[in-house]
Amino acid sequence: MPHHMPLISTIVVGLVLAFVLGAIAQRLRISPLVGYLLAGVFVGPFTPGYVADQTLSNQLAEIGVILLMFGVGLHFSLKDLLSVRAIAVPGAIVQIASATLLGMGLAWLMGWSLEGGLVFGLALSVASTVVLLRALQERRLVETERGHIAVGWLIVEDLAMVLTLVLLPAFAKATAGSGADLESIAISLGLTLGKVLAFMAVMLVVGRRVIPWILHYVAHTGSRELFRLSVLAIALGTAFGAAELFGVSFALGAFFAGMVLSESELSHRAASETLPLRDAFAVLFFVSVGMLFDPMILIHNFGPVLATFLIIVVGKSLAAYGIVRLFRHPDTTAITIAASLAQIGEFSFILAGLGVELRLLPSEGRDLILAGAILSILVNPFLFTLLDRWFARREAARPEKATEAEAASAPVEAPVATREPLPKTALADHVVLVGHGRVGKFISGKLAATGTPFLIVETDKTQLTSLPQEGVETLIGNAADPEVAVAANVGEARCLLVAIPDAFESGQVVEQARRLNPDLPIVVRVHSAAQEDHVMKYGATRVVMGEQEIARAMISAVPDAPRAPILASVEDADTIESVTDGAAQEQAGETTLPHVLRPEADADEAGGKTPEPRHAGQHAEEPGR
């Protein structure tokens, strides 16, 4: 077996090192993206030790860019943008222009060309989607006005960068050489825009019909592997075809493929099916970017690095703060937006790489962008922590009591907190349902039909769209979060139903609920004996094994004559104790019923008896299962 395998070694070493450093960064409450970039630095040519194949890394990074842009298109929401267009569109444009001018000024001081300064400034103007959304989610701000403005602002920035990536090659071609003039630049940009419009027309006329049809056809085959393959083929094939047939970038082709696919009913499934591969190649993209970074620039060019960092953290933030205040939004909203945008990320790396490839941006500029990105992402969580403390001090400094006249004359302002508070539900003796997917929707329908008071906790807001209008209380968040559990009043609940498919997350939910109420009945959905043991260890009262219940329901439909031998074979294979033959049980003296909940048909056959739970200390393979 040959030992010289650069592709395998590059992927393996890159992913393993990215995992180790990403886990360390996560432990330190820093974005894992910093760990991925540092992994690239360690396997790059500027540090001692193993050096990954840079040519292969760049090609892997291209696939990462395609899948990243495909994900951006999948999650593109015109509705979110239109809801805050009055501030997000002009605000983002002015903030991009301000940061670009600051970047061009620094480039001019360093003696760079006008084109290099333009690319450098644009790269500093756009924030990281990953970092911004994580900061908002940690503070439960996504569904607030501040969150909507920040997300809309980010969408405008992303659209501006997509347009920049399209026009930059034409701009570079038009400005190459000494004979470049405004006419040649305009002609080149016009031809590029014409190709882009032709591609958009094909995607909107043909793609909107063909792509959803392909997905629906494959989905009806019932093959999960084919469905995953179809999504990847659409993303990669559209990007490659856009580049080959229309001369536009891979990034634009993938973005439009995702945007067209987002209109399909299967878009959420497509996003979830491709997420693991998208994440893997996104990590390789960040590793390949880190390989290009020369750490010595922090020493040799400390002044430019500091200036770049200040443009990102201070210059952009001040511009965003001023714009938001100009639109008469509260101080807290302005500061939250400013802090959210005080970093750069994915698009900055893509733009810097393209600028160097087109010989518009010097390699030193790419190093400065990478240094600024790493430093700004490192500082961003601490920036929010400082804001938390500052808001708390300002709140504490306010007079505890004010006269009615003072209260009436005081301006109305949003709550002074960077973390949105969760109001506690007034429900008591209610059912708390965690998860509102296919299983959760069935449960909530039954609870509503019987008039049982209940509350739903879900992380995906799209699963809760119409429920508030129907009078159903909902909470967006992770039920394992202590604040979410308290807000759901788990301590005074009648029962907790955990309907999410992830047993590890379910264990955390059960553990948190058990701390609030040691006697709370907790029923958890599982898929295997190992998952059963896991959630029972944390204090679940009962478990429902979906596959087992399906088997019971199907067996109950078998005609009476062959029923006994079929049940016996299932018992032998699954160690399920039969409860359908009452006479046989009485003769054997067995009265134990399975601890898993069964369908109503099974309960009827068992004489109306209710299954009893297994004790937490009883192993899954012991009798009684």
What is the compact description of this entry?
With 625 residues, the chain is mainly alpha-helical. It has helices spanning 6-27, 32-42, 54-74, 78-83, 85-109, 114-125, 129-138, 145-175, 182-221, 224-246, 250-261, 267-291, 297-300, 302-326, 331-340, 346-357, 363-397, 404-409, 438-449, 482-487, 503-516, 529-537, 546-556, 563-574, 582-588, 600-605; strands at 431-434, 454-458, 473-476, 495-498, 522-526, 542-545. Strands 3-2-1-4-5-6 form a 6-stranded parallel beta sheet, with helices on both faces.
Question: What's the layout of helices and strands?
Answer:
Blueprint: H1 6-27, H2 32-42, H3 54-74, H4 78-83, H5 85-109, H6 114-125, H7 129-138, H8 145-175, H9 182-221, H10 224-246, H11 250-261, H12 267-291, H13 297-300, H14 302-326, H15 331-340, H16 346-357, H17 363-397, H18 404-409, E1 431-434, H19 438-449, E2 454-458, E3 473-476, H20 482-487, E4 495-498, H21 503-516, E5 522-526, H22 529-537, E6 542-545, H23 546-556, H24 563-574, H25 582-588, H26 600-605
Parallel strand pairs: 1-2, 1-4, 2-3, 4-5, 5-6
Number of strand segments: 6
- Amino-to-carboxy terminus distance: 48 Å
Please mark out the parts with pLDDT under 50 across 5 or more consecutive residues, or reply none. Answer: 401-418, 567-625
| Number of continuous helical runs | 26
Mean pLDDT: 77
Gross morphology is globular
Structural class: mainly alpha
Strand fraction equals: under 5%
Largest sheet: 6 strands, parallel
User: What is the share of helical residues?
Assistant: 55-70%
Q: Order of strands in the sheet with the most strands?
A: 3-2-1-4-5-6
Rounded radius of gyration (Å): 29 Å
